[in-house]
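User: Predict the full complex structure for these chains.
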Amino acid sequence: MATETPQGLSSFPVTKLCTLLSLGIPVFASVAGVKYWFLLYTDPFISTYKQYYRLMTFQISAVNETDVILITLIWYYYRHLERLLGSRKYLSLIALTWMYTSVVVLVTAWIFNLNPFLKWNRFTTGALPIVMSLFHFYKEHTPRMYRFDVKIIKPLGSRSKQIKWSFNDQFVINALVAILMLNQGLVGVVTAFLSWMCGVFIERGLFPGSEVFRLPLFKKSAQPGPSRGVVAAGPEPSPSESGSLHAAQGENGQEVEPGDEPSDEPARPLGVQFLNTFRM
Amino acid sequence: MEIDGNTLLLVFVFLFILYSNPSGDGVTSQYEYNQLQTLKAQYEQEHMQFSNLSSNHNFRNITGLKLSYGDVLQEPKINATYPIEGKDYDHWFANQNYTLLPESVEYEIKHSVWKTGHNVYPPNVTSTLRGQVKRSHDEEFVVVPMPIPEYYKPAQDLLQNRPSFAEPYDSELGDYQGSRNITFLEGEIVVEILSADTISGLYERETRFQNTQSDRWRFLHLNIHFSDYSENEKHAIRSKAIYDIQNGRILAFSESAKFHSLFALPHYMNLKNEDEATYNQVKTLVEEYWNATDFINTRSMAYLQNSYAVASTSCEFLAFLQLDPWSDFSQEQIRTIDKELTWPLGRSANLSSLPPVNISSGLIYSPDCGVRLQMKNVTGLRYELQVRKMRNLLLLGAVLLASQIYLLLRQMQHTNTPSLVNKISYWSFSLMNLVDGVLAIIFFVMTNSFAALYQPLIVCSFACLILASVFEMRYMISVYASQVNERNVSIFTLLRRNTDGDERPTPTVIPDEASISSSLYRSYVFKMLFSMIAILSVATWPRDLRAPVECLGIFVLSSYWVPQIVRNAVKGNMPRRTETESPTGTSLPQRQSKPPLLWTFVIGTSIIRFLPVAYVYSVPPNIFYHHQDRRFVAVVAAWLFIQIALLYSQDVFGGRWFLPNYTIPDGYKYHKAISSGELLEHGSSENHTIDCAICMNDVAVYVEDIAETHKVDQQSYMVTPCGHIFHTNCLENWMSYKLQCPVCRAPLPPL
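Assistant: Here is the predicted structure of the two-chain assembly.
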């Protein structure tokens, strides 16, 4: 069925990469004690220490555990976008939004700091800006499949009115995005709004590049990955091929068995091998 | 369970035992209550005296300070009592008539240990320093008697309610002096410097210590451990110390039942008679410490008993240390460095160039044992830097473990048939598994003692655990399962690859993987337990004994390829490039000549397992402070190289090249002619063929006494030891899954 999303993430290399990185980098940072690499404050870091590398790193990893989980979950929900756009275009879009949101947020903060009263010092950590601009794309391209109402009759005593909430099938991701936005305070909300505007501008072409810009060094074989259909007639694109980007990134290239002649025993992926250990 | 009267009674008895343990201060009897009250009263009274002291007044009735070195010198039999007739209590000068120090020691402290002249010193010196200690001029000094007050002693019998208050005038010095006298001339010393800004203890409330002069003075806890080089004799001092930040001096006094040293700190800090101000500042600091810890009310029975035990088993020590200045840094830089170390944010503090905390000169003197120790080259990194170093090493270790897991997975994928797995040595992997499992436990236990390194330690422990108890165990189970039909076969039979039928009963029921794995896991758990006990006990041995055992252990654990070499010889693996001439003239590569171990796995594993050994034994400032032994590292490296070279030679020349020919009997031949009698047993058909039980087609066989079958190629069929006949292709395919006869389940010799 066309509307059904394929199981697992094997046909979503970019989503897989993003979810793994948004979990893996914070864990590494925490273990190695380098969480501060991903902090960005105007006051000591930029104005005093001149650590401009932080302008690049502050979106890479969240330092707060809640943000880490939220961002990971949201990346997972965004797998439809990868299916829609194709892996290369999706990755290019992520890179583009990363650049635009960073610039927009930093420039806005700089303009805001021209006022003598209030200072915008702290910036958000984690991929909140990227996620928020992609949220616009998600909303734009994902159809609502169903909606449902929750009616609560007289929730606050006998004289209160009946409360009716309407939800649609996207209410989970809406909630996740809302929590993510609020979790970093006022700065989070402002940054989220700016990034969302960035998303709108990129989509409308006000910020150029979404149609033109493509990341180089992207393997050809990764292209036909998620959207089957035309390719299905040809030689079957094996999951290991579409996952080649992910394998090249070096998480675990276990499933890839190049050059093995087909054997009558089905290949056991790493997960199965792992589980078999406990199966007695 | 039925609840009747007895059960309830039992519950009450349990509750009674649970709740009737001693209260907060650990008092369990009337006698102990009185003991503790006496101690508190004594401290109270001593503190009163201390409050009234000035730099010009001598100590009066303070435990351990009643006598000076001069008093003992004048009258060697003097008793530590108060007041002493003719003693000058109204003045205090820094000489042997007033202090516990003999003149020579005092001179040395004043002129060569402690320096004056302000310089830049780090305010925070929390660290662990290591170096050498040397004993000097033992016999010169008279011993100042420091008797333990009677009320410290435990009750003589159950009826005794009040501790004895008699002062132990006839102090016998013998018992504690003999047992822990320092007999070595040179040894190692470890100085652990802890900041006392936060005070907490087992029975003490956690209190923030308000130090109003933290820019000038710091209150420290100093734990000093020293031993001779072979660790036969170990001494430990727990002391309270004052750190003079401006001059880089540290004064540390041990504290026990016979020496209430806290009250002596201001006087001795002012040993050089600098000014009244120094004395008063240190006195304020001691008072602040006293108040912050609520010193009297927090004394507990545990404290009392502990200080009695320490007093009766060890000497008292006064330590005078001088730090090296950090003159390359300004105060501002040091402040930034301190902040960055405690709360890293990436400030511009060049931490890698931070000098170590270094004691340029140090002297330890024991008044009641008459021992003087000199410190040499005592140095160490700041605590936070040390933690960073350890963290980086642990991360490197985690990377090594991850690559080991990756290599093992590659190896597992390489040997995906039972025939190949059968050639792997179970004991090779068992050795590796032992090391990894023990490492997992050690890392896990270490998480307890290094809270700062919890995360990297737990990551390493987890990686080890996964490697050992999941992947390696999984592999070992399949190796074991593939070799299970060789279990009760003698090694000669294996060498012959021949099953003579009557030699053993053929096990028709081979245990399944579940039972194998449960038995292997059981033995794994016991192995871990046993090796933990062994390691713990070895760790406490003195060095002379420990070092050879350690080396032997590491050597044995590095011999993990030896079982594989033996296994290769037993299985008689074919040389890599042998080609069998098939009768048709084309040469086919031997199917089973693939070496069982991947070369990347062999070399990678050897390197991964060798690196930690090399680090511990050959990098001088390694984090374990392990002694250096480059020769041993070279021996281990050579041994590993020999093993790998042997494995390689077996790969090239065949598994048995080093065995003389006569020791190698012929293996079982699957391709052979059969007799007509055997043909009849198989129910021969007209054209002398037999049904292949696998593909159900006819197999043409070469029968010796029937000439017309002699055109049949003997390579085209196989005869099993149990006498069943199959097509070569059919049986070889089957044998890549199971080494059992498909018809009668008798074990088959591998190809």
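DSSP finds twelve helices and two strands in chain A.
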